[in-house]
């Protein structure tokens, strides 16, 4: 339920992978070397009064708390869908823009809190926290909500619920984490809405993107998942065995579909479907599909013959919704075909495979 963006890992998300590896590695190193903690403390007073620029840069990048680093890593891993959808440069521009805006918002909110409650905020939790919270803005607006299950018949659990739970856990980890969360949400809303043309003012230059593409991306890029590897390009025995099982399951599905449409007896949808039996896996589906043997001439009725499952029309809007969630277009088309264009059934099947 947590991985609402498919099962392709960090494929086509080198920036997300780099953030996970580098920031988590630095957090572990600082845990083992506590004498260097002072260099990475996010001290607002030191930045404002003593002009300690390194405190602003390091304090808003590297985590000092392992729990904050863990929760942020889970969120960054889930938000990798935006890097796949928008591209690495635009995703990096969003993080850069919200980082700069939230740095200003931190000081404004701290001053407002001091004015209202007469309490001076000196230190804030360290790490890439505000930009991570800012990603909740496009996550809320662009990722469709798909029901998964219900708890006690009243509480609806969707594909986005666990992401919000992790965000709430991160929000309650420190006393002034709410200030960074509010700063990140405001910055994300401003940058996502392109207020005052912020997207044209705060962005990653093309030359930086060029350097990153040829220097950093080969280091942090992930290989294509084995489920997308062609059969003739080094497929393992397990993949070949899985393909044979997929072919048998597909033949069973087509036979059941043709039989149900021939007698005009629609099957009621139920929440207790056995997906592994009625729906074949999407791995390598479509490349090695065997032709369905035609019926004998004596039984064929051209005038009343029902259309085959593969020829059923698929709505482009439903395909676009599944593609926005991170699934490939091929997987989305096949899932909608086998689920008779039911978006909820197709989504649940993709999430479970």
Mean pLDDT: 79
Helical percent range? 55-70%
In whole angstroms, how far apart are the ends?
11 Å
- Helix/strand class: mainly alpha
Give the SSE order as H and E letters: HEHHHHHEHHEEHHHHHHHHH
What is the count of β-strands? Answer: 4
Spatially, the strands of the biggest sheet line up as 1-2
Number of helices: 17
Q: What amount of the residues lies in strands?
A: under 5%
Cα radius of gyration in angstroms: 25 Å
The shape is elongated
Taking the sheet with the most strands, its summary is: 2 strands, antiparallel
Q: Provide the low-confidence segments as ranges.
A: 1-7, 227-237, 264-273, 281-290, 294-310
Describe the secondary-structure layout.
Layout: H1 14-32, E1 42-43, H2 44-49, H3 53-59, H4 66-78, H5 80-86, H6 88-117, E2 123-124, H7 129-134, H8 136-142, E3 147-151, E4 155-158, H9 161-171, H10 177-192, H11 198-201, H12 206-220, H13 237-262, H14 275-278, H15 316-324, H16 329-338, H17 343-352
Antiparallel strand pairs: 1-2, 3-4
Helix pairs in contact: 1-4, 1-12, 4-9, 5-6, 6-10, 15-16, 16-17
